[in-house]
Amino acid sequence: MPTTDETAKTISKNNDYFDFNVISPISRSANITYEISAVKSSNSTLDNNDVKLYLEKNQLGKYVEVMEPTKFKTLTSKSDIGSEKGTMILYKETVNKTTTDNYRLRMWLSDKAKVDNISRTFTVQVAIHASVKANK
Known about the structure:
This protein has one helix spanning 5-8, and strands spanning 18-24, 30-40, 51-59, 62-71, 88-95, 99-109, 124-134.
C-alpha cells in the first residue's frame, strides 16, 4: 500500500528493511572510495516514480539517514567508480582505514502512487563498486 515517508522510515519489522555491510580492508596507506547503488530488476513493472528508497548508516549503534527518501532515479551514464547506466547511486563514501560500515535500506510505494487492482512489482539488488587510491 502507498505509504508516507515519515511512516516508512520508522517501520521496524524485519521484512520491511534490508541490512547489509560494506567491508573496506586497507593494509597500506590508501583511500577506498565506494558507492552503493540499486540495480532495478528487468522484471519490475512499477514506474520508477512510484517507488522510494531510503538509506541509513549505523553510527555509534544508531541508524542515521544518509539518503533521504528518494524516487528511483537512474544514472544516464556509467559512474566514474563503476556503477552502471540505469542504476541508482544511493550513497558514496571514502575511507582511509579498515572499516565495516553497516547500512539499512528501505523501499516502499510512494503515497503519490496511483493504486489499482493490477499486481505490479519493483525489485532491486544492492551493488557496491569501489576504487582504491594509494596515498603517497
